[in-house]
Amino acid sequence: MPKDSNRVVYPPEGWANSLTTTYVGPEQFGNGEVYDTQLNGALLVRLVFDQRDDEITVRCLQCAEQSQAFGRFMAHPIIGIVSINATALLVPMNTPRIMRHLADTHDEMLGGIDDVDFYNCLLDCCGL
Fold first, then answer.
1. Tens digit of pLDDT for each residue in 24-73?
2. DSSP 8-state assignment for residue 123
3. What totals of helices (H) and strands (E) does the chain contain, helices first?
4. Bridge partners, 49 (sequence order)
């Protein structure tokens, strides 16, 4: 599991993660560590932390699995990628797409979490 990161944006003092996380294990192709997240007890997204690229791939667990790699395997669709070393100005470019998918497709408003807070939740879920 990850211990160090190039994280640049940190949450404010007293912040608490709104998501709960379960460590699933290594990604099936060896490209990172997998975490499933929940909001209020319901599965929300799967995070695949790739330490080599300092990125977290976000897959929607509320969407059905889809055929990938010309039918070689099934996986939940990717709804975004979050850069761990994003500056504060780039964070709003990373998370809104994910949040829009959850809101528009699944009516999941994330309990009023804003984009920077959601970014910090995702990184915290991966132990960063």
1. 999 877 779 999 999 999 999 999 999 888 899 999 999 999 887 677 77
2. H
3. 3, 7
4. 33, 56
**CA–CA separation, 86 and 35 (whole Å):** 20
Round to the nearest angstrom and report the end-to-end CA distance of the chain.
Answer: 10
Q: The dihedral of CA 53, 51, 36, 66: what is its sign?
A: positive
Helix 96-106 and helix 115-125: axis angle, to 10°? 100
Q: What's the pTM? A: 0.88
Query: Residue 22 is encoded by which pair of tokens?
Result: 């379960």
Give residue 23's identity as a one-letter amino acid code.
Answer: Y
Residue 60 near residue 79, CB atoms below 8 Å: yes
Q: Do 82 and 55 meet the contact criterion of CB atoms below 8 Å apart?
A: yes
d(CA 81, CA 61) in angstroms, rounded, equals: 15
